[in-house]
Amino acid sequence: MVKLTVEERQRLVTLLASVPLLSTESGRAEMLALAGLGDLVPHIDLAGAPLVAVSRVVSHLSAYGRFSRDQEALGVFLNLVATLTGKEQQVFIAGLLLTHRMMVPVSPAPTVVSWKGTDSPGSVEEKIITSNTLRPVHFLERALDAARAVCHIEVREGATGWTGTGFLVSDDLLLTNEHVLPRKDLLADARFLFNYEDDPAGRPRPVETVRASGRVFLSDRELDFALVELAGRPGERWGGLELADAPPRVGERVNIIQHPAGQPKQIAMQSNFVQYVDDSIVQYVTATLPGSSGSPVLTDEWQVCAVHHAGGNLREPATGSRYFRNEGFRISRILDRLPADLRSHLS
């Protein structure tokens, strides 16, 4: 536990309230997550005016205590905040970290002495530019882990056929689009290819081909989803994706693991902002291609928030205006359509 003096606390709260990224509730949550304290976000009331909200953050983190062997939770947070402040504020924060033995402070940024731009030098020091794209390295490990549950789907109907993408939500249940698997009779000739991807040298990895069991098939044209039971419990080998409890918010990022144009597995995780959310759909600018239908739309926590199903000049329901976007149906709406016995088996 960190015990600040009254003067230290007052000055610290005033400093934090002046940081632009901490001026909004979403920014406060983002900063806590970036500091590795995302698990604490649900336990802190981040709403309200900056002075009130950051005061709650300081109180909660001070009382939380050690985050690791030699790091206090408040220290981890302040060390990150220091990178967004000026020299005087950095010195103050460093003093707090050392005095209260919270952790070792980050090194101060050097003074900019030969700046030829039109803005002041202080505005071009190391900062979060436009949006925060910093992620811990394990973010990539979690992406690879999530990708294991995504598969390529090949459907045959007589002399014709098509491809799509699907993903496991349990050991034997897979979600995709209804327009990828519109009828149960197609399951007999459908193939589900796991590990259809290239290794770092560009060589194909060994693929496991799985078939449908034929026991469970549920489709919904309105929400464009199909739930299929696969034979052999492939989730025991490839895992299953977690489902998000809440939708993403406008401005947040989503990532899509997919088989675009029937190609080996790929991931879209840049320029990937959510543009619109309502009770049924999520619209976003993440890149996809035909063949990506049925892909999981994933939050930065690698939880499924929607199932991708369409893209193009789409209508935004709330305004009626059209925008060039991609779109998926919210996973919560899909879950509402499932029988209770099936819902209980999902990840």
What does this structure look like?
- It is a single chain.
- Mean pLDDT is about 90; it is low at about 120-125.
- The protein is α+β, with helices and mostly antiparallel strands and about 350 residues long.
- The protein is built from 9 helices and 17 strands.
- It has helices at about 5-15, 25-35, 50-65, 75-80, 85-100, 140-145, 235-240, 330-335, 340-345, and strands at about 65-70, 70, 150-155, 160-170, 175, 190-195, 210, 210-220, 225-230, 240-245, 255-260, 265-270, 275, 280-285, 295-300, 305-315, 320-330.
- The strands form 3 sheets. Strands 10, 11, 12, 13, 14, 15, 16 and 17 form an 8-stranded mixed sheet that branches. Strands 7-6-3-4-5-9-8 form a 7-stranded antiparallel sheet, with no helix packed on it.
- Strand 8 and strand 9 (about 225-230) form a beta hairpin.
- The radius of gyration is 24 Å and the shape is elongated.
- The chain folds into 3 domains: about 5-105; about 150-240, Trypsin-like serine proteases (Thrombin, subunit H, Beta Barrel), CATH 2.40.10.10; about 240-345, Beta Barrel (Thrombin, subunit H), CATH 2.40.10.
- The longest helix has 15 residues, at about 50-65.
- The two termini are about 35 Å apart.
- Helix 1 (about 5-15) packs across helix 3 (about 50-65).
Number of strands: 17
Our count of domains comes out at 3
Major sheet description: 8 strands, mixed
Strand content: 25-35%
Distance between the termini: 36 Å
* Computed Rg: 24 Å
Figure out the total of helices.
Answer: 9
Q: Summarize the amount of helix as a percent range.
A: 10-25%
H and E string: HHHEEHHHEEEEEEEHEEEEEEEEHH
Runs with pLDDT <50, length 5+? 121-126
Give me the secondary-structure category: alpha+beta
The average pLDDT is: 88
Oligomer: single chain
What sort of overall outline do the alpha carbons produce when their principal axes are compared? elongated
